[in-house]
Amino acid sequence: MKKKILILGGGISKERLISLETAEEVYKELKKNYKVVICEPDKDLIKNIKKFKPNIVFNALHGQFGEDGYIQTILESQKIKYTHSGVLASSIAMDKDISKIIYLKNKILTPKYIKFKTDQNKNNLLIQKIKKKLNFPVVIKPINEGSSVHVYICSEKNFLRNLKKMNLYKEILIEEFIAGREIQVCILGTKKLGAIELKPKRKFYDYEAKYNINAKTEHIIPVDLSKKNLEKILNIAQKAHKLIGCKGVTRSDFKFYKNNFYLLETNTQPGMTKLSLVPEIARYEGMSFIELIEWMLKDASTNR
Question: Is the dihedral of CA 155, 166, 89, 29 positive or negative?
């Protein structure tokens, strides 16, 4: 009998469409050798799991509810094997403040930042604090979103205008802007799979640059780094993966500036679309898309 795989896709996050694309790409590969369904993580999720009785759940969700420990808690309660990181690692990696605290405590370089409550109406004081601690330009971002959703690079001139756009969040990060090269690293279990460099045509590697083929972001692999620096960035990504307690596959995002690697974040649910980086790194390292997916299925477990 064919193994049954339930792919979780869609969800309620701002990354819903990318999640559906990931789910569809995985489905197209798995349907050849498995009995597969794509399922929304809605109010009928547990009922659908019990009805379908999958051997494994492939988590293709991105962003809030799918990547932050919530869906993992539900899957743990059903004692079902699932892919990617578990409850605690997912929630830590998704929270940019907590993950930065862990990086800093363990001597991993990350951009300096201020945590800011958006209901604080002390804009003049905030600008003074930024000038003292970070300097302009700065990056403002939600604490718990992915895919560069609502991320803005701000000068002093446009800072307050962009800050108003963040009122839908209770807390945000205001982070020093690090110029330099965009490099991302994939960790596969205990293996340092590889790295890729991105040269966006846009201001930075934002949502459009990530997912719109018309943005024409240049993907460079192999990355032009010395052997020593390549090993260094791979080791930092692996260290972050271990410290957070990640399982399965992760992708860590770096800026390389003045011979220093700054870790921006570690993603526990990297995309699996046609433009996604993890499949591209895997392909360069001699691992096909189906081999990558099947590695994740073999790695799946309960109590992650």
Answer: negative
The residues that are catalytic are 15, 147, 211, 251, 253, 265, 267, 271
Q: Compute how many other C-beta atoms are within 10 angstroms of the C-beta atom of residue 231.
A: 12
Instruction: Place domain 113-176 in its CATH homologous superfamily.
Output: ATP-grasp fold, A domain (3.30.1490.20)
The class level of CATH for 4-83 reads alpha beta
pTM confidence score = 0.90
Tens digits of pLDDT across the chain (304 residues): 789 999 999 998 888 999 999 999 999 999 999 999 999 999 999 999 999 999 999 999 998 898 999 999 999 999 999 999 999 999 999 999 999 999 999 999 999 999 988 777 677 788 889 999 999 999 999 888 765 678 899 999 999 888 888 888 888 999 999 999 999 999 999 999 999 999 877 555 555 545 455 667 789 999 999 999 999 999 999 999 999 999 999 999 999 999 999 999 999 999 998 778 999 999 999 999 999 999 999 999 998 8
First and final CA of the chain: distance in angstroms? 27
Please report, for the chain, the start and end positions of each structural domain, with discontinuous segments joined by +: 4-83, 93-108+179-299, 113-176
